[in-house]
Amino acid sequence: MDAAFTEEQDGIRRTLRGLLRERCGPDEVKAAVRTAPGHDPALWRLLARQLGLPGLALPPEVGGVGCGPTELALACEEAGRALLPSPLTATAVLAAPLVDRLGTGSQRAALLPRIADGGLTAALAVPGAELGGALGLTGGDRGGGWAGGGRAGGVQARECGKGGGEAGNWRLYGQVDQVLDGHSAGLLVVAARTGGYARGRTLLFLVRAGAPGLARTRLTALDETRPQGRIELRDVAAGPLGIPDGGGGGAGGGVAPADALARLGTTAAAALAAEAVGAADAALGRTVEHVRTREQFGRPIGSFQAVKHRLAEVYVKVEEARSAAYYAAWAAGSAAAVSGRGPDTGAAVASGLALATALEAQLAAAGAAVQLHGGIGFTWEHDAHLYVKRAASDELLFGPVHRLRARAAELEGLFAQPDGSGATIDGRLGRKAVTV
Hints:
Protein name: Acyl-CoA dehydrogenase family protein
Number of domains: 3
Keywords: FAD, Flavoprotein, Oxidoreductase
Pfam families: Acyl-CoA_dh_1 (PF00441), Acyl-CoA_dh_N (PF02771)
Shape: globular
Oligomer: single chain
Domain Acyl-CoA dehydrogenase/oxidase C-terminal: 270-405
Number of helices: 12
Helix content: 40-55%
Radius of gyration: 22 Å
InterPro entries: Acyl-CoA_Oxase/DH_mid-dom_sf, AcylCo_DH-like_C, AcylCo_DH/oxidase_C, AcylCoA_DH/ox_N, AcylCoA_DH/ox_N_sf, AcylCoA_DH/oxidase_NM_dom_sf
């Protein structure tokens, strides 16, 4: 592994940081989140035109830049540093890779160029607030039960005869809450259950904005920089992403939706970890600047040993998380280059642990920012609370941390099957460990 970034990677990070420093300060963030889409469309178009940000990790043949998970993670780190309210996570990290991986030739040709040039945003709608489980980050249900059963809840899909072309005539029913950018995205990738309760399967469907029977509502979210929407599907016409029998026409034709989601989870976790590292580093930097200038008892509060120790602990957490995020992005890129269809276990473990480490660092940096800013830090209107809200919201959306670590331990095989004594054997350490 070469730990040094290439000139191109450094250029992406440097250019994006400079642009966001000019166009995305705290005041601009607060103004953007109060608009109807929850972000600044003009800034999003600028990022698409100058940097190709929406199509950064898409192949050149569909209008993308052709970069990999490492470049996407570096872009997400800078977006997290500025707390950029944008469709980057929903579109470039979650939805677009699925269209590229599973979509038929006609679907990729129709959708991906528009996504890459910033003209079309997309969102992944997973029922039951189980995004982490669907992506294989916090659970191992590969059957897609998180999409809802045939009895009640979730989203159900029903095929009403064969329609024209490869799409068929499918109708969707149900509701999905907490969809990132779900209220404003031009394209929805919806996970739905079909085939009844006993023999059901989960498929992914494409739903266009404005489809008859589709109702969307923006929700009040803890973190306004990650706007969320509620999706209500009332007999909505939809086409399956790829071909329902598994014969997708994308780069990985024949990949099952569950495998594609698990593979997506590996790259998405690395990008989300880098984004959390960016936010944590920015919160730490703001706090360090404050303690250097804020005086108490005739001296800067940053000169007090207790403050130094607190900031040193946060710094170590942030740097640990940064290293883990960079390694996870590298592992995800290496696995994508050599793997066949399914997710790489080593890369999945690295990404899950990186995300857990980054979420912890983000919480620590945000908490220290509030406390070390003193009385002004506790006021709800202070900029420090932007980072507090992001840290708390991210763990609710993509965690919790202990489940991320438990899933990584399960994938790594740290615990063998029960030996009949109510405990499990840790094959590596050669000792018994309590089953949890």
